[in-house]
Amino acid sequence: MAIVSRGFRGKRATDPRLPPGQYLEGGFPVLSAGPTPRADLATWTFSITGSGTTRGSWTWAELQALPADDIVKDIHCVTKWTKLDSAWRGVSLDTLLDAVEIDPEEQFALAHCDGGYTTNVPLADLRGGKAWIAYGYDGAPLRPEHGGPARLLIPHLYFWKSAKWVRSIDLSPSDTYGFWEKLGYHAYGDPWKEQRYWGD
């Protein structure tokens, strides 16, 4: 982890790209709720589900064959570090959601990941060029410790919403808290409003 001097951290209040309470991080800290899963790409799939049914499913090869975006975004961790201009490659959730049928009442999504991790997000935050299934980072395949082979990438929310090792997104008419949300993290997680915990 990079060491940031007191004087350097003092610039955060005047840097327009730093949300309130954040400091700049030059590295890429690894934070996980459990051990790092190892996926077999021969059997790996990503699915969109809802009402107990699978709406769409893609193998690793099928996901790789879809149009991909190169994304450069700032990311903000709830533990108060911000990394500017992080470079990713992945498939837009718009592409995947446009390929399945969605009930108009389904306004929420719950991401499910290897290892049992979950996180919730409004469906609107997965649309409009706001979210991706990312499988590349900094010009290379996404490493397992950073969520590889594929993770959810929602850079406008705190980074715990960008769930590592994502395998499915379940659509629902109601919002259901995920792993950290049940333990006191904010249901939405806007870094510019410092929505870190319940009540923020």
TrEMBL record:
Residues 34-180 form the Oxidoreductase molybdopterin-binding domain. Gene3D superfamilies: Oxidoreductase, molybdopterin-binding domain. InterPro entries: OxRdtase_Mopterin-bd_dom, OxRdtase_Mopterin-bd_sf. This is Sulfite oxidase-like oxidoreductase.
